[in-house]
């Protein structure tokens, strides 16, 4: 295998991209909206609008890649850019009529894709039609009119003067003329231009041809081409044909067959230009720098932009108009050499990772996988090569979803490539096929009583994020929330649902239905019953469990918090109700939820615990006020540490310790040996958690050295029958007056040296099941829990874990 | 350890003016600007995209009033009606409350009146209540007349000011007016039920009531 093979996979002449840049209109001074708050900057609105362009796929359109905001409303559009502009070609070559017809056909195909999405190109010129090596064409720069709200957000007109339809001039540039047929006019003009015809008599076309002294050429045109141009150049938009109508013309038949049949199924791409662009960025590619290097972005000293006069109300006078606010048609192509170099040693096999049926022989011939284990997550996410392998792999796995569900999960346990996170999450959340239809059916528009609350919450929800603060972002979030409320009539909108939805919308900005489907599957799994109109018992149970989990893992901290009356109710409600999406910025939530989605509904308790653990030293030395202030203003919590710590306690905690009555049994099946029927009152009285008989049996059988069983029944009963390996500290023998472990007599040393063993207390109806565990807790003994039910639970278990206790 | 008023006791026993701590709670419909008022008062800032409040948030601020230092322990509550059931936890034991409405929205004024009634019935009888008509900077969109609110405040013995968290107008003033009205001698302080040492989970106490005045 030669080394340059793989690079040639990357070095595809169509896998190239370029950027253009312009300025969005700046709002004057500090103008405010009707709510007294500053207006959304136009560049942010543009960013929101432009996202839709990312979804457009057509062989005749350049793929839209990215939109970047700079300072002072600068906006940069990154898009596929490959081939040669027609303008350059027709300078040197004469195209045959057949070639011209093909160009017209393909341009119409491209336009019809846009028109179906209500996007008008408005910018069709021979500069924006790129001819590929194989003779096919791609339209470029078709998104400007759409993303700028039909030109309203920029201070230059979005049009190509020579090719623009007459009605645009009639109605004025700013009237937001949207008729798609302006594109058809431009197309007609363009074909005419290619024929270097400049004219027309009875027809516009003939007139133009005459005016340009090309009447002869006009007369010699084949009838079909002539007709086509004339149809395009009809001055009445209503009579001008649409893309679809034009495409139906017989003279396009010769192109139709080959193109259309391919569309039977979506071919699997090994990687896409979006991914190439992503790797390019990771490998140091920087659009902004390239634009600077090539002189498209120039910074002038700020002093030059000072106005000569500032009126007291803030009006500026005498400021030079910055010529950069006009449209600059230059396109800067991005250099790919660095990326090619960086990936030069990647073998071709890496593009086709084996997933199933790995035989030893094959895998031994595999190149060693790129090793990044042990590197911090943030480093892994920035490593182009590692991300190359991850994206290639996940792309394949996702292609096979839902059949590859288990493999996706398995790989996600290592890490999730940020580029594909949206899809990986929805796979982890079991989003079913056909989710779009589901969403389409829901009412997202009728007025409801919740509307005001949703409306005031959305402009406060993760607004530092460009997508979520854009107009499109607001609209989408509102629709998703309303759809959710509509669909879940048993539930209501609680403030916080907006934050909870934000990560899903952010990741699936162009697939609202998927964002909704993710949310819809997420809530039953992690927040079952939390959105009931009266959720008091659900929340209180959860909070009580949280306190118990703190006691279980960190008795010293639990005792301190208890002493200063620092109740989780005062700070943890937003944590649990929004699963931290209200308290952390998005980038932290993403990493946190990457792990959450692999765990069950008890995981958030462990996240909470890990946050406390991270702040432990400060909490231990602080009083009530300082502690609560610490949480009102959550300081820099290191999320990676937090994730690791919560995973650790999650894995080392018997599941029944966090078992709740209000848990969704669909995801956590309980049987007779599990915990059931604990009332909220009982639960709130208990400082130490209960453990299920099932978990004890399991541990005694599989990891007997991980558990210390303390049987507090009286000695007679104990000797008659007890769990293997348990010790007997009869309840009546202990004096609880002082919190000193030595009071427990001979067994105290067992407890002192227990290490990280779980201490499970077994009693029966005669024993007090609160004082003993509380005593241990006060002595700072960790991992104390109490058997749910009593000793008799074990008698019917087969094979038995009991023995007659005489040996103890 | 649990005595939070300890800081106020000077080691040398000198009495250089009093230090008082008061628990103050903010109530009012969602998005009227409760959090914004607190942020302005405590940090002198205004965030246009102030996040909504879930549950409640706690902040403190100290102001000087003649020879007295007044420390406010502020509970900023969630405005959505659904969070109502949590509110007693915060206003019980409070010595002062600011009930906020948005002058551009009549409904929020109605909601403010409901809060006032509830406080009059359920909170400490000596609680000092202030009514704040916020977003005064949007006076051109006013839906609640100044006089209407003033009359209502007079009838109910409330302090009243129109405020703007955005421009800072009257923000410090309203807190100052409350501080002035609060009793600053020891007899008047323990009234709200000094809940120190009692557990919140028993359900009958709020976060520990402050209200200690130390000479
Ligand atoms: N124009 C103007 N806007 C304000 C003012 N105070 C707050 N706002 C805005 O009003 C919105 C709501 O303010 P918040 O402080 O979050 O309201 P809140 O009462 O705490 O709302 P909840 O937490 O939901 O109960 C935010 O967008 C603020 O920026 C003000 O004085 N003038
Ligand atoms: Mg608030």
Automatic annotation (TrEMBL), chain A:
Task: List residues of the Protein kinase domain.
Answer: 1-252
Q: Which GO terms describe its molecular function?
A: ATP binding; GTPase activator activity; protein kinase activity
CDD domains given in the database record: PKc
The residue ranges of the Rab-GAP TBC domain are 415-600
Record flagged with keyword Oxidoreductase: no
Q: Which Pfam families match?
A: Pkinase (PF00069), RabGAP-TBC (PF00566), Rhodanese (PF00581)
* Keywords, ordered alphabetically: GTPase activation
List each copy of the Rhodanese domain by range: 703-803
Transmembrane segments in this chain: where? none
Protein's recorded name: TBC domain-containing protein kinase-like protein
UniProtKB/TrEMBL annotation, chain B:
| Keyword Cell cycle included in the entry's annotation | no
Similarity section: Belongs to the small GTPase superfamily. Rab family.
What does the UniProt entry say about where the protein is found? Early endosome
Provide the E.C. number(s) assigned to this enzyme.
3.6.5.2
Q: Which reaction does this chain catalyze? A: GTP + H2O = GDP + phosphate + H(+)
Q: Which GO terms describe its biological process?
A: protein transport
- The regions listed as transmembrane in this protein's record are none
Please give one Gene Ontology molecular function term for this protein.
G protein activity
Pfam families on file: Ras (PF00071)
Q: Name one GO cellular component term.
A: early endosome
Any idea which UniProt keywords this protein has?
Answer: Endosome, GTP-binding, Hydrolase, Lipoprotein, Nucleotide-binding, Prenylation, Protein transport, Transport
Chief location category: other
- Could you identify this protein by its name? small monomeric GTPase
Q: Where is this region: Disordered?
A: 186-215
Reply yes or no: does the keyword Lipoprotein apply: yes
Cite the InterPro entries for this sequence: P-loop_NTPase, Small_GTP-bd, Small_GTPase
Record's PANTHER family?
A: PTHR47978
């Amino acid at each position: 295998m030669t080394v340059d093979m793989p690079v040639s996979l990357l070095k595809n002449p169509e896998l190239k991209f370029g950027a253009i840049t312009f300025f969005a209109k700046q709002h004057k001074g500090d103008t405010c909206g009707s709510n007294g708050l500053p207006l959304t900057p136009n560049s942010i609105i543009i960013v929101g609008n432009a996202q839709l362009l990312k979804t457009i796929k057509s062989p005749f359109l350049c793929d839209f890649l990215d939109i970047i905001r700079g300072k002072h409303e600068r906006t940069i559009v990154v898009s596929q850019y490959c081939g040669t502009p027609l303008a350059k070609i027709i300078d040197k070559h004469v195209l045959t009529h057949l070639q011209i017809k093909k160009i017209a056909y393909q341009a119409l195909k491209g336009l019809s894709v846009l028109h179906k999405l209500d996007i008008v190109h408005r910018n069709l010129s021979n500069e924006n039609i790129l001819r590929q090596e194989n003779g096919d064409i791609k339209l470029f720069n078709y998104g400007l009119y759409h993303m700028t709200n039909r030109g309203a957000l920029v201070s230059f007109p979005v049009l190509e003067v020579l090719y623009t339809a007459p009605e645009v001039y009639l109605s004025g540039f700013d009237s937001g003329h949207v008729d798609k047929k302006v594109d058809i006019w431009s197309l007609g003009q363009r074909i005419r231009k290619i024929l270097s015809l400049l004219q027309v008599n009875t027809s516009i076309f003939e007139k133009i041809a005459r005016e340009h002294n090309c009447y002869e050429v006009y007369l010699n045109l084949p009838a079909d081409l002539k007709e086509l141009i004339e149809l395009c150049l009809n001055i009445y938009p209503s009579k001008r044909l649409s893309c679809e109508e034009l495409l139906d013309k017989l003279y396009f038949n010769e192109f139709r067959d080959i193109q259309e049949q391919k569309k039977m199924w979506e071919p699997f791409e090994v990687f896409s230009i979006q991914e190439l662009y992503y790797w390019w960025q990771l490998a140091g590619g920087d659009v902004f720098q390239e634009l600077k290097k090539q002189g498209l972005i120039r910074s002038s000293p700020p002093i030059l932009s000072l106005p000569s006069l500032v009126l007291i109300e803030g009006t500026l006078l005498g400021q030079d108009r910055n010529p950069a606010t006009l449209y600059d048609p230059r396109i800067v192509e991005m250099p790919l050499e660095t990326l090619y170099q960086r990936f030069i040693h990647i073998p071709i096999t890496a593009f086709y990772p084996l997933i199933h049926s790995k035989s030893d022989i094959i895998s031994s011939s595999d190149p060693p996988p790129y090793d990044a284990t042990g590197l911090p997550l943030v480093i892994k996410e920035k490593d182009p090569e590692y991300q190359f392998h991850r994206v290639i792999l996940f792309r394949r796995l996702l292609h096979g979803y839902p059949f590859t569900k288990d493999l996706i999960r398995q790989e996600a346990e290592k890490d999730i490539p940020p580029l594909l996170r949206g899809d990986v999450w929805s796979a982890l959340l079991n989003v079913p096929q056909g989710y779009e239809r589901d969403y389409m059916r829901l009412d997202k528009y009728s007025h409801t009583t919740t509307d005001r609350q949703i409306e005031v919450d959305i402009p406060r929800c993760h607004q530092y994020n460009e997508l979520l603060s854009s107009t499109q972002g607001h609209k989408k979030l509102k629709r998703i929330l309303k759809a959710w409320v509509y669909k879940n009539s048993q539930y209501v909108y609680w403030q916080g649902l907006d934050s909870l939805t934000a990560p899903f919308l952010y990741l699936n900005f162009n697939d609202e239905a998927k964002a909704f489907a993710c949310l819809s599957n997420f809530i039953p799994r992690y927040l079952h019953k939390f959105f009931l109109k009266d959720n008091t018992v659900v929340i209180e149970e959860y909070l009580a469990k949280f306190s118990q989990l703190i006691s279980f893992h960190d008795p010293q901290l639990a005792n301190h918090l208890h002493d200063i009356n620092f109740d989780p109710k005062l700070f943890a409600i937003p944590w649990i109700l929004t699963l931290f999406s209200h308290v952390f910025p998005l980038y932290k939530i993403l990493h946190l939820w990457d792990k959450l989605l692999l765990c069950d509904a008890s995981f958030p308790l462990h996240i909470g615990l890990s946050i406390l653990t991270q702040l432990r030293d400060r909490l231990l030395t602080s009083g009530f006020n300082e502690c609560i202030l610490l949480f009102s203003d959550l300081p820099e919590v290191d999320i990676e540490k937090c994730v690791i710590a919560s995973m650790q306690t999650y894995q080392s905690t018997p599941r029944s310790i966090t078992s709740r009555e209000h848990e969704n049994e669909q995801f956590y099946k309980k049987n007779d040996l599990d915990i059931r029927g604990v009332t909220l009152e009982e639960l709130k009285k208990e400082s130490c958690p209960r453990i299920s008989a099932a978990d004890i049996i399991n541990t005694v059988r599989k990891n007997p050295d991980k558990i210390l069983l303390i049987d507090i029944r009286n000695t007679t009963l104990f000797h008659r029958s007890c769990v293997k390996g348990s010790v007997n500290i009869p309840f009546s023998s202990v004096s609880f007056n002082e919190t000193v472990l030595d009071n427990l007599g001979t067994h105290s040393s067992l407890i002192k040296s227990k290490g990280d063993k779980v201490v499970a207390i077994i009693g029966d109806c005669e024993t007090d099941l609160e004082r003993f565990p509380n005593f241990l807790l006060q002595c700072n003994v960790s991992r104390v829990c109490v058997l749910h039910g009593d000793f008799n639970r074990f008698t019917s278990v087969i094979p038995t874990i009991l023995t007659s206790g005489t040996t103890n | 350890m649990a005595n939070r008023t300890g800081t106020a006791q000077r080691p040398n026993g000198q009495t250089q003016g009093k230090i008082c701590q008061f628990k103050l709670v903010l109530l009012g419909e969602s998005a009227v600007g409760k959090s914004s008022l607190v942020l302005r008062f405590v940090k002198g800032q205004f965030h246009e995209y102030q996040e909504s409040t879930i549950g409640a948030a706690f902040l403190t601020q100290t102001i000087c009033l003649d020879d007295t230092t007044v420390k406010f322990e502020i509970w900023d509550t969630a405005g959505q009606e659904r969070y109502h059931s949590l509110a007693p936890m915060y206003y019980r034991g409070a010595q002062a409350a600011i009930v906020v409405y948005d002058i551009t929205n009549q409904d929020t004024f109605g909601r403010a009146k409901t809060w006032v009634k509830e406080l009059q019935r359920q909170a400490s009888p000596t609680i000092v209540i202030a009514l704040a008509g916020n977003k005064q900077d949007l006076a051109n969109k006013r839906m609640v007349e100044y006089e209407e609110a003033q009359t209502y405040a007079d009838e109910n013995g409330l302090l009243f000011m129109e405020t703007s968290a955005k421009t800072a107008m009257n923000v410090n003033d309203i807190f100052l007016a409350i501080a002035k009205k609060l009793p600053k001698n020891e007899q008047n302080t323990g009234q709200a039920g000094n809940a120190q040492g009692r557990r919140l989970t028993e359900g009958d106490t709020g976060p520990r009531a402050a209200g200690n005045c130390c000479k």
